[in-house]
Design goal:
Length: about 280
Amino acid sequence: MSTLFRRRGAVRASAGRIGAMALRHLYLLRTSWPRLLELMYWPTVQMILWGLVSTFLLTNSSWVAQASGVLLAGVILWDVLFRGQLGLSLVFIEEMWSRNLGHLFSSPLRPWELIVALMMISLLRTLIGMGSAVGFAILLYHFSIFDLGLPLIAFFFNLIFMGWAVGLVVCGLVLRYGLGAESLAWFMIFAFAPVSCIYYPLEILPDWLKHVAEALPSALVFEGMRSVLFDGVFLYDLLWRAMALNALYMALAVAAFMAFFHSARKRGLLHQIGE
């Protein structure tokens, strides 16, 4: 009985630490309007830019005319992946900028609890950023991403999970190589863009590159998105493959982050990294 109470107490304490970490960054958002503006700025700018491109192509391309808003849907869903990765990486790097990692891990906070807290705040930042883009798409171009229906939920979570996996690898690399590697947080995800097939079907890729694309959850999601928009068909096989790949990549990303973390702790770097 006492063991059960201890376990319950440990679970409550763990949940409290996770909540405290997420709440800390929520307070930072609430007290800093530039941070809130940054969350909404790029999605909104991209929405306006690509909305204009989409408006032009709708009247000049029979391919795009088959599914109104296919480019806008691609932009919005790509930004879920980008924001998910950047939100996780940037929050972690902010802890490094403030030289706070050593203090955090002098507390009972565990590495996996930090990972969960990073994911929570990344999800919140992504939702805030995408809210403005979705709103402008409806207001300016009369396109609602919610027209995708329930498949949108599957697309969203597959993309944000892939973003988190990439973000954890970025965090691990920054731990290993220091803040000189922090630029990875901004450009690493874009290495996946050409083979994610955001704006074009997978079959136009060269044969050797198709195999790379088929190993990415993002490419499977965008193929599924076009199937819903063009044919009104949700391809469940693509969903299951994307979920399986995400599970694999998340496990590898967590393992890589933990390896980098334990290496940094052993070498005494947690208290040294920062500005």
